[in-house]
Amino acid sequence: MPSDLETAMEMLILVFHRYASKDGHPGTLSRRELRELMENELANFLKSQKDPGAIDKIMKDLDANGDGQVDFEEFVSLVVGLSVACEQCYKMHKGLKTGKK
């Protein structure tokens, strides 16, 4: 039986490929696929954004190699960044120290 972390990693991979397989480039997300993924899988994050161009800015930031596509490694950097931000909020909510030594 997989651990919670193994299950989370598997879900991350499955979600990426569910959206990446739509535009004919199965290993990458186009801007449209990234938008659809974020609207469906990160809806609360998108609702909290005040900037209507947030997805375009995210796409530009994620597309490290400038090919107009977001590969899995580039996508993971979004998930990591959001996870770090959420963990900081978790610490604040729990009254834990948030600073680094």
Automatic annotation (TrEMBL):
Organism per entry: Ataeniobius toweri
Cited InterPro entries: EF-hand-dom_pair, EF_Hand_1_Ca_BS, EF_hand_dom, S100/CaBP7/8-like_CS, S100_Ca-bd_sub
SMART domains according to UniProt: EFh (SM00054), S_100 (SM01394)
Coiled-coil spans in chain: none
RNA-binding in keyword set: no
Protein name: Protein S100
Residue ranges of domain EF-hand in the record: 50-85
Record's keyword terms, sorted: Calcium, Metal-binding
Matching SUPFAM superfamilies: EF-hand (SSF47473)
